[in-house]
């Protein structure tokens, strides 16, 4: 049975996308609904900074079709400030709010800072069993010391995915090898990039070869029956909708032409 690859971007609320992606005069309140005409998933960055209100979460659901999936970042209070210790209350509050999305809730990402090193393994081992089993969760490490058999076994024990990253801290060859050693029933991919890029209205780096290499990996995962969630950052090439659409094309997913997105602004 073939899998499915969901491709989207990291966030949707960018004024610089009006014109090149969102139709001219699209208002911020319309961004998400228009975005959902082109992609079936998005990674929400705002939940990293604070647990959203129930009203906000329900509004996200109301502006998207039933098949749409939101990937939510765990609040930084859990991953960066408390570093997984004494984080039960905020974690419970976060998941309670996430469930307001209903079937639109996709995976949850725990993104750790570079100084979260393997010395924190006891905290990770204590925290993972507290995660709800009915929500797909992934972890993103930014310290290479985490990539070893014992940690992979720990993640697999709890069905937690190791996020596959296109970034500076880990060689792509190693990332592609990890794609053969999955620890969960789904795959989470994040394409990062050059933080010096600040204009998000256009592509500024040709990443064609990089996209083609990744497309080969994603196609194999799809053929093997895996569910994949992949999200592009604007810093990857300068304009993440273009990168995401190109990946859709490489995976034969028939991307939506931005010129056609605005034909019906009130779809939902």
TL;DR?
The protein is an alpha/beta fold and 268 residues long.
Report on the architecture of this protein.
The chain is α/β, with parallel strands linked by helices and 268 residues long. The protein has a single domain, classed as Protein of unknown function UPF0759 (TIM Barrel, Alpha-Beta Barrel). Helix content is 32%, strand content 16%. Strands 6-5-4-3-2-1-9-8-7 form a 9-stranded parallel sheet.
Strand count: 9
By CATH's scheme, which homologous superfamily applies? Protein of unknown function UPF0759
Output the radius of gyration.
18 Å
The CATH architecture term is Alpha-Beta Barrel
Number of helices: 10
Main beta-sheet annotation = 9 strands, parallel
The CA-CA distance between the termini, in Å, is: 32 Å
CATH class: Alpha Beta
Give the proportion of residues in helices.
Answer: 25-40%
Q: Name the structural class.
A: alpha/beta
Low-confidence stretches: 264-268
Cross-sheet strand order for the largest sheet: 6-5-4-3-2-1-9-8-7
- Estimate the global geometry from the Cα principal axes: globular
* CATH fold-level topology: TIM Barrel
Mean pLDDT: 96
The proportion of strand residues reads 15-25%
Instruction: Please give the oligomerization state of what you see.
Output: single chain
How many separate domains make up the residues? 1
Can you write the helix and strand succession as a string? EHEHEHHEHEHEEHEHEHH
């Amino acid at each position: 049975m073939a899998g499915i690859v969901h491709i989207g971007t990291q966030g949707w609320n960018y004024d610089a996308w009006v014109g090149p992606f969102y139709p001219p005069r699209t208002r911020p309140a319309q961004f998400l609904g228009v975005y959902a005409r082109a992609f079936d998933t998005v990674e929400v960055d705002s939940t990293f900074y604070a647990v959203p209100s129930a009203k906000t979460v329900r509004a996200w659901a109301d502006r998207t079709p039933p098949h749409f999936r939101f990937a939510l970042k765990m609040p930084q209070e859990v991953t960066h400030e408390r570093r997984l210790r004494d984080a039960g209350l905020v974690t419970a509050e976060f998941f309670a709010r996430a469930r307001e999305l209903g079937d639109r809730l996709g995976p949850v990402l725990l993104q750790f800072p570079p100084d979260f090193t393997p010395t924190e393994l006891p905290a990770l081992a204590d925290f993972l069993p507290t995660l709800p089993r009915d929500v797909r969760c992934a972890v993103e490490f930014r310290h290479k010391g985490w990539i070893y058999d014992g940690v992979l076994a720990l993640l697999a024990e709890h069905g937690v995915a190791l996020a596959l990253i296109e970034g500076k801290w880990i060689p792509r060859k190693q990332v592609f090898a990890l794609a053969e050693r999955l620890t969960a029933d789904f795959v989470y991919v994040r394409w990062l990039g050059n933080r010096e890029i600040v204009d998000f209205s256009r592509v500024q780096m040709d990443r064609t070869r990089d996209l083609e290499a990744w497309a080969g990996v994603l196609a194999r995962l799809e053929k093997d029956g895996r569910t994949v969630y992949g999200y592009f950052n604007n810093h990857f090439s300068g304009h993440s909708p273009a990168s995401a659409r190109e990946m859709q094309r490489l995976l034969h997913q028939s991307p939506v032409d931005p010129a056609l997105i605005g034909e019906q602004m009130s779809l939902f």
